[in-house]
Input
Amino acid sequence: MAKKLFADGVSGDVAIFDPANPAALSNPLENLGSVYFHSALSYMAIVNVATITIDHPERARSGNINKYGSGYNPTYGSETYDLAEHTLGYIPHGILYTGDNMLPSATPIQMVGRSFRAAVLKFTDAKVQLHESFYTFDETLPPVSLTYKALVFRRPSEDEESTTLFISPTQMIASRGKLNTDHRYVQSHDSPGDAPDFFFTAAKTADVQNGAMKMVTANGTVIEDPDYTGAFDGGNSRGCKA
Amino acid sequence: MQGMSFFASNDRIRITNAAGLAIFDTAHPMPHILERVQLSNVNVAFPTLNYGNWVYNPPPNIAFGCPYQDCQTVWVYDPVSGTYKPQTQCTTKYQGEYYSQLRMVVHPREWESTIDLATLSSGISPDFLLVNCRADRTKQGKYTYLMSGEFHWTEVFETGIPLGETFMANGTTIFEGSFRPGGISWIRRSMSIFADGPTIKMELKHSNRGFEVHGGTQSACGQSPYIPIPASPDGESIYAVDLDIYAGKFT
Output
C-alpha cells in the first residue's frame, strides 16, 4: 500500500496517509484505517523509560498466634520506592511492567503460601514511585529483587514549535512539534511475529467472586486466588513498543 | 554523531532519531489520544455486609452461682387456737449469672454496580484507556469477628492503594481485601474503568464469602439472659475519587 507525506505550509497540516483514500487527509477520524500520522490527532510522547531494580526487604510474619488459635496474626504494611524523577511540572500518566507483563494496580508481585506483596505505580509532579503493600499470614516473605520498567507519558502534544515541517541532519519536526525525533512515541507492534514491550487495553483486568479475585494482565498472565469461582478470562489488548 | 534519517519508499515511511531508534514507522503506527476525561469527587461506595441475627446456641444456661431466698407460704397448725395459720418459710438457694453463647452468620454476598462516567464526543470506541486515580477514603469498612458482652471485636478492611496520592488505575484495581486465618481471602472489592463502545464506565464489585461469628453475653442475677446486643459495624467503605483518563485509539 502506498504512503503519501503531505505538508501544508499555510495551514500547518502534516499527514502521512494512504493516497488511495484522500478523505484520510481531510477527515482523519472517520478514516483512521488510512491514516499513519495526522497533525489533527494527538499523540503521546514518552518522556522516560525507567528501568530499575528494587530490593524488596523481608516481610516477617507475626510472632503471635492469631485469635483463632489456628495460625499467626496477619501483618500489613506498605512502603514507597522512587523509580524515577521527571521535570514535567505536572502529574503524568504512565504504566508499570515487569518483562512484558503490564501490571494493573495492586498486582501481587510475590506470593509465598497465602502471604503476598503487591505493587502500585504512583506519581507526583516530580517523581515516579512504586507503592508496595504487603500482607503476611503463616509465611514470611523473603527478600526479593525485582526489575521494573515504568513508562512515563508526556501529555498529548500542544503546539511546541511554529514549524510545519523541519528536517535537519539531526532532527525532524513535523506539525508544530507533534512529531519530533527528539521524543519517543508509542508504536503499535501487534502483528504476528511482533514482540511487544507492553500492552494497552480498554478492558477490565480482574474480577472478584466468592470473596476471591482473579487477575488477567494485558499479556495474558493469570494471578488467581485458589477460591475464585468466576469465569473471567480477561479482555482484549494491543501490543506496543516504545 | 549519527544523524536523523528519513526513509521513504512507495509503501513505507520510516524516521529514526540520532540514536538510530525508530521514532516513526508507517509499519507500526502510533496510537493517538481521542479525548481526555477528567472527573472529580466520583463516589465509590462498597456495600454493607449482610449479617444474620444473633442466635443463642446453646440456650442460656446458669454458669455462676449467686444466692437468693426462695420463700413460700405454708399453713402451720396452731394448737392454741386449734387452727392453721400462714407462715413464711425461706431457704437459701443459688441462681447464677446467665452466660450465653451466641452465633451469627455473615451471609455471602455478590454485588456489583456499573455507572457511565463519560461518552466520548467523537462517538469512537477507544482501544485503550490510561487512567490516573486519586482516592480519599471517607469511611473505612470494618466488621465484627468476635463478640463478648456488649463489645464487638472488629477488624478494618485494609487497602493496598496509596490513599490521597495519584496512582495508575488502568483496567481493574483491587481496592480492598480481608482474610481469614491462614490468609484465606474472604472479601474482595474492585474498581474497573473500561470502555463499552464510546462510553467509559466504572464498575464496582464486592464479593464476600459467608462465615460464622461467635460471641457470648453475661447477665446478672435476676435479669433476663437475653440482653440487647449492639449492632455490628456495617462493613461499608466509601471513597471519593478523582479520575484523569486518556482514551486512545490505534489506527
Q: What stands out?
A: The mean pLDDT of chain B is 87.
